[in-house]
Here is the input.
Amino acid sequence: MNWGWGLGRCWGCGDALVPNEVAGICPPCRWVWPTLPDHEASRILARERAGCEVFGVGFRLRNGTHDVLHRVKYGGFPREGRALGQWMAQGWRAPPPGSVLVPVPLHWRRRWRRGFNPPEAVAEGLATGWGRELRPDLLRRVRHRASLTASTRAARLDALTDMYVAGPKNRRNVASGPPRDVWGCEVVLVDDVLTTGATFRVCQSVLEAAGHRVVGGVWLAMA
Ligand SMILES: [Zn+2]
Here is the structure.
């Protein structure tokens, strides 16, 4: 099937949308699309999994929506992720004013291979739709995967925490742009899929050890 990759096509079935069709889903697909609206029930569902305040979760992973997520992650087109982020921003209230959006980073090698970081593309769409600042510079992934030799639970958590580093790589990069807070931000983490919430907790502990406050998370999809 030719998905066409364009924003003018339905995320569900790939059919062309009429101009100005909302949210990239055609009317027939909208009936069966397992979206999670901005309701207390969605928040509770996601909060149980993530163990934090939830500022948005787009849809449940089912047969049909797996394809959409796969295209966002591996399709090679960041605009799909951006469009989904903007769609989520239409349906969910914005996080508190002054909070910044930080995408869960990829290791540079994987990012280079894919050409972009899918959670960052989603976060770009959210930042535009919500009018919040996007701060991918606040968190970096420095290891490809965690060492699996750790035997205790605490050692395993340490090994996961070692995969990420807070703060900009180079202070000069920050100084060259407009003045920005490097420490002490109110952070909303953005990731593509919520499964166990382990990635969230690891990123949260790294950011909080660096003086930021992680106020919650946003996920494009929930398993
Ligand atoms: Zn459709």
